[in-house]
TrEMBL record:
Keywords: Cell membrane, Membrane, Transmembrane, Transmembrane helix, Transport
Phylogenetic placement of the source organism: Bacteria, Bacillati, Actinomycetota, Actinomycetes, Bifidobacteriales
Name of the featured protein: Drug resistance MFS transporter, drug:H antiporter-2 family
Gene Ontology terms for molecular function: transmembrane transporter activity
Major facilitator superfamily (MFS) profile domain residues: 32-483
Gene Ontology CC annotations of this record: plasma membrane
Amino acid sequence: MSVDKTTVRKNQLIDASFVPDRPHHIDHPHKVMLGLYISVFLGMLSETSMNITLPDLMTDFGVSSGTVQWMVVGYMLAIGVVLPCVGFLLKWVKAKTLALFALTCFLIGAIVCTFAPTFPILLAGRIAQGISTGIVLPTMYAAIMRVFPPHKIGAANGVAGLVIMFAPVIGPTIAGALIGALSWRAIFALFAVVAVIAIVCTALFFITPIERTRPSVDVLSVIASAVGFGCLVAGVSLISDMGFSPVVIGLLVVGVLVLAFYARRQLTIASPLLDLHALGIAAFRVPAIMVSCSFACTLAFMYLVPQELQRGLGLSSTVAGLLMLPGGVVNAICTLMAGRLFDRHGAKRLVWFGVAMTVIGGAMFFAIGTDSTIALFIAAHVIVMVGIPFIQQSAQSAALKSLPMHMAADGSTIMNTMQQVCGAIATAVATCLLGLGQMRYVAAGGDNPAQGFVDGSRYGYLFGLALVAVALLFSFLLSEHTDEPKLVPVHVDIEKLAA
């Protein structure tokens, strides 16, 4: 009986703790992940490029600013509802099937939005895109934990972080250029083209590395998840538009109460929708909180910076988008560096470096005024974009690497859900602080709207730096266990494998 080289390799030392979940060897793992990389980039690009289209949508469909805001809120709401269920879905459905379903939803949504004759139809297509993004985000991270060997997890997360962090930088630039040259419909047409590419790459290259255990379905948990996360995300997203109105307060209260019930149920039932026991592991919980803080800081800055360039410094949206590109390039490089350096040095020192750079860059934003030079802004933005990846990628790699393989999908879902909820809260808080700063400027006798916006932005930047300070405090609790799992001899029947 002849035995090929692959079979012989399987007869060698195998990491027993990873056998049920992780393929022992996958050639060209980045090629395997290509479709999901494109999918997540598309989702984040869609999430961050929509703000610039809102004025045109208001004009074309004749809707108010509060109504058109649902293009953003509805997208985040769909993500918030779907995300917590993905870890459970991956235990029932093949990861490849789930990813292709998500991308098909995005493609259909993009086509619907491209030709939408009315605003409700446009919003329906947008929600379909949000469902897709909510699925592919945790699926990508769960797959990374199985496709890559343990000693390359940091570098792999660096590539994933590059995909996520680069999209918010180029999104406004691409959207502005397409609107200027064609119309807002061209943005959704572009999304459709990229979705087709992602579908092809996923169908050709992606494998199904996640074991399906098919646990029982707890319907009450599914309902509680949808209601709790949906109300919470909708509530915090509407604060900037409606303030703490009775509707917003009601949504927040219902969201918190239902989520408290949901969390208690997940910790007590035999087959939880989302295994929250991962949060009981300090080596996961601590860096997960740090990731959420750094992501929230990023969204707060990304919300304030382009607006300050336009309304504070008087620049056009196209120029503002172009000025953010240098920071985006630096962010991409540092994201990759942070992932690779984590594999060698662990998280703690990288996080400290990232905090220092973010604080320096954030402090420089306080020096920006209505007559500041473009060079000062670029310098401040670039320094912040150096610091954030070292915090986020290092902490994220530490969190995911700390979990046993059977909890990887749940851990990825938990962390992505925390990021989306914290990001929504951070954007709402930054908006409120911006308004507070503007009101204080006017109350003090100021009559220059541009300077008032600059003053208000500083309140938001201070909030972002406070989030970084929280990440710094938690960094002292990080445990630096960088040893790879030990290989344990496992007996494998070669004849059965070769049969």
